[in-house]
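NADH-dependent oxidoreductase
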Amino acid sequence: MAQHNLTDTITFRRGLTIPNRIALAPMQSQSALEGGYASNDTIRYYNHRSKAAGLLITEFHYVSESGGPAYMPGYPSQMGIYSDVHLEGAKKIAQALKKDGNKAVMQIHHGGRMAIGRFINHQDVVAPSDLQRKFPVRALTESEIKEIIADFGRATKRAIEAGFDGVEIHGANHYLLQQFFSVLTNHRTDKWGGSLENRMRFPLAVVREVKRVVAEAGAQNFIIGYRLSPEEIHGTDIGYTYKESLQLVEAIVKEELDYIHLSLWGGYDSKPEGADQSFGSLFKAALDDETKLIIVGNIFSEEAARDAVENYTDIIAVGRGTLVDPEFGHKIMNGKGDTIVREVTPEHVPNMHLTPGLFEAFTRTDSLGLPPLPGAETIYDQHRGTYDNHPLAILYAEQ
């Protein structure tokens, strides 16, 4: 890999330029109103993260009414972009993120079987195939599949109208695109399932529809990224391995996107079991010269971010590190990386500018299933339980 510096200016395939190799990782802000609308808490949260990185990726926005919300019942909802009525909030988010000159990308998504809000509201939960979780999940029909593909295009058009600089197609974290790719959740026998080629068909159809809409809109410098989990392995249950997801990436690369974004739970330097190379190195080798690689994973310091871009990736996405210090990228760009706050303390909490939902999530001892913030044990006693005893949370827990 050519020598990379954190403060390099990066230009993507479609012409968008960012001032460094740092991205704000997409993280649910736990702040949306019912129906997927941005709240005042949402806008405040993004206002305080406008200096977090050169490329600022929003939390996931569901593109179809059937696509969400995917959230913890009782907590604030998930952001939506399935209707023009969401445009006002989307514009405010874009303006908040871009106010200091950095670029903003909207992550677009369909929850599939993870759309718990559908179950709570007594609506069908859909996926590639019939499944049974805590609730029944119905297989999508052919016409519904085609409509969801079109919905990704419509969401892209709204992101353009809202003033975003790009979209990131969310194909990771067990949501619908990954569900089509995984043999654990795709049991179809038609053209949308079975062989690896067929299981790739839905993600690739979404990519092509998003590209078509961007071209049709004539959106200059508007970038397109794709996020994926490189493996789906749960003990002896294997949805796919990195060898299969590499083939998906090779197919996506042919579509000439701007970046591939790997969601890594094991850290930016993690490797597949039994492999000599890191996920970053393996997937970087599958890209062409114009497709950038973004990886995310356990970055809380300038030193770690520098190591990541020097040895593993083109751009490093920082998630929890920007929750702890919202000015993570700004400090590095101004030669003050040594002042980045790396751990939570009770005294530092006001400077984190968390939404009430995020504060409650990260003061739980289980962090709602997410990795904890460094130092989180010092603020567990501040947990108020605001959302934990909500009737929806109790209803879901009883299922």
